[in-house]
Sequence to fold (568 residues):
Amino acid sequence: MAGIDRKRVGDILLFDGLITNEQLNEALEIQAQSPEKMPIGELLIQLGYLSEEGLALALSKKLRTKYLSLSDYSLVIRYDQGLERLINEDFARTHLVLPLSKTHRVIYVAMWDPLNYVVIDNIERMTLLDVTAYCAPKKDILEGIERLYVLKGPPPEGAMASAITLDQKPAVARKDEIEQMKQKASEAPVIKLVNSVIQRAIKDRASDIHIEPNEIGVEIRYRIDGILYRIDAPAKEMYAPISSRIKILSRLDIAEKRLPQDGGFTIKYDNRNIDFRVSTIPTIYGEKVVLRILDKEKMGFDLSSIGLSPVDFDKVNIAIKKPYGLILITGPTGSGKTTSLYCILNMIKSPQKNVITIEDPVEYRIEGVNQVQEVPSIGLNFARGLRAFLRQDPDIIMVGEIRDMETADMAIRSALVGRLVLSTLHTNDAIGAISRLLDLDVEPFLVSATLIMVIAQRLVRKLCPNCKELVTNVDKELAERYKLKGAKIYGPKGCPSCNNRGFSGRLAVFEVLIADQEVQELIEKRTDIAIIRNVLFKKGMKLLRDDAMEKVRDGLTSINEAIVATME
Fold:
C-alpha cells in the first residue's frame, strides 16, 4: 500500500472544491450525534452533497494510490486468472472488493473502502498474497463483481450496446472533440508560443513553469531562484491549445481533465538535452499545468561547488568514503536535498562499485548508477525496493526519502549488513534526524551502530555579482549577534544581467553532524537531545544560521536571505 496522506478525507474534499465548509460542518454535526458513527464520506453521499466518484477520488489521494473507473476504461479485470476462486463472491459483495489481477506475490483489488485494513488483512490470509488496493466507485465495483462472478467475462458487444446510458452517448462526439484539440494544438501559432515560453524559461534559469487558468484568463509564472515571477500572459482562448500541446509532448491523455496526470518530454536546446517533468491537476477554472525543468548540464553535480565550507567539505569527504553506514540529508521540500545526494553519488560512484537508487521520481540520470523509479500503484515503494536491492549485491544504496517505519527499518538493516546507505528526512536541523529515527521506532542501539553523518541544508539566493551594493546601515544588534561587525555586508540592487532582481542563482547553507564514537554512545544511552546538541557544539558543529552568516560575510548573500532561509 502506498504511503498515507495524513489529511482527513473531509479536508481533501474541501481542498478539491467537492464540498463546502457548511456541508462538511453539517455532516460532522450529524456524525457526532449518530451512535453508528458513519464515515464522513458516506454521510456526505447520503446527504446528497457528494458523489461516489468524488469520495473514491478523495480516498485515492489520501492513500496516494490510483483511482479506477469503468467510464474511462481504467478499471480492467483479468478474467483468465481464476480470481473468482481466490476471493469468493459473498466476500466480494459483502465488503465491496473486486479482484482485478494477480502476480505470484501480489493481488490487485479495487475497493470502495481501502482504509478497511481488516478486510485487506482477510484478503491476504485468504489468498496468501500481498494486497495492493485501488479506489473505485461503489457502482463500478458492483458492476465488476457481476461481470467476474456472474457473466464470467465482459458483457457481449450487443449487451453493451443496449446498456449504453445517456451519460455515455457523448463518447462518439468525444472522438471529434479530441481530434479538434489535437489539430488546434498542432497549429503553428500554438507551437511557436509554447516553444517561446519554454525557451524563455530556460534562458531565465527558471526551475519551474506554472500555467494556471483563472477567472478572467490564464497566468504564466516562472520560478526563478525559488521565487515565482509573472510573465506576459497569452490570450484566454490560447489556454486550451497550450495545455493540449504540452499534454501531447508529454504523452498524456488530452481528453482527461478530471484527474491529475504526470508525464514528461525532452527537448534539444543550445546543443544539450533538457528534460521536463510535467504535472497536471484539475482546478475550478480548468487544469493547472506545471513543468519542472531538469537541466543536468547546468547542475553539474559537483560536491565542491554547492556551498560547503572547506571544513565541512573535508568532513563530508571523509564520511562518504566509509564502506558502510547511514548518511542522511535533511531539510524541507525544495531545499536541495536531492541535488546534494546526486553530488555525493557522482563523487563516490566507480566501475568497482554497484550503486542502486530508488527515487520518486528519478529526476536526473547518472551514468554508472542503477536508478529505479518508485511506483506505489503496483506496490513498488521505497521499503520494497530496499528489500529487493539487498539481493542485487549492492555496495551503495540511495533511497529517495525515509517516510515511514518500514523504510527506516530496511535502511538501517541495509547499513548493518555492510552497505553505504544514503537517504533524506524531513527535519528542521541535523540533530532532529536522530529524534525522527527514534520516533519511527528504530532502536537507539541500531541508530548508534549505523549513523555516520547528517547534513541539514537550506537554499539562499546569491547576490548578483554585477550589481550587489555595500550596505552601510547594518543594524547594530544584528551585527553583534551574528559577528558581522567590521565585515563588508552587501545587499541586492538590480541590473539588466539579473533582470533587476538583485539576485542570480542559489547556493546551499549547511549544518554537518558527524556521529563519532562519543555521539554514538550518547545515542545508544538514549541521552537527551539537548545534551547531544551541546556536545556537538563543543566539537565545532555550526548551525545553519552560522553557515548562512558566513556566506553574508563572504559577500555571497544578503542578511535578510540568511535569516529568512534559516528560520525554523
User: Anything to note?
Assistant: The CA atoms of residues 449 and 520 lie 7 Å apart. The chain has a mean pLDDT of 85. Residues 170-185 form the longest helix (16 residues).
